[in-house]
Amino acid sequence: MRSHPEILRILLIVLVFGLLLMNYNTLLPVYTRSQLNLGEAGYGMLLASMGAGSLAAAVLIALKNQWFQRVYLIPLFPGIIAVLYAVLPIISQYRLLLPIFVIYGFCTTGFITASNTLVLQIGEPKARARIASTYNMMLNGFAPLGNLISGISLHVFGIAASFYWISSLVIGFLAGWVRLSRTKGGDAKALALRSSLKK
């Protein structure tokens, strides 16, 4: 990763995604009960909406795989989810939530596909097993810690404030990430890959 700073930057955003945006299983039950007063059926429909979004992304990936290899999608998908986090506390109508969770599921699957594909393409073939292991550790290994942080935040600050500070933190990180990426660029292989993906 030291020899390929582009990989390091992608893995940093994967870490933030796993830590702060994979915590729906902690936030969503409290959100549906305290803010929407929904029972198990309503909670299940929101999860089903997320599944529908993920399925739509999977089908689109199968049909248009090249589209998900565009570099700009890596910060875009987490950014969309962060905006959704900021919007959720002000929505009280159940029907408006279903398309939001469809988008959440779509962006989650899209981000995992785009980021995983790019780090494996940039990395050396002999190092791909280690890169894949590190990627999974960043994405899934930090999710339990993110759930713990979200649970503490729910207990101390409540559901709305938890959504707001997570959204603000992710958007702030993404702004710095994009600025750093533009300033430092990347190594020759990453730049060549980026230019080829833009075509």
From TrEMBL:
Keywords: Cell membrane, Membrane, Transmembrane, Transmembrane helix, Transport. Pfam families: MFS_3. The keyword Endoplasmic reticulum does not apply. Gene3D superfamilies: MFS general substrate transporter like domains. SUPFAM superfamilies: MFS general substrate transporter. Its main location: membrane. It is a multi-pass membrane protein. GO terms for cellular component: plasma membrane. The keyword Transmembrane helix applies. The chain crosses the membrane at residues 7-24, 44-63, 70-91, 97-119, 139-157, 163-180. It is found in: Cell membrane. This is MFS transporter. The lineage of its organism: Bacteria, Bacillati, Bacillota, Bacilli, Bacillales.
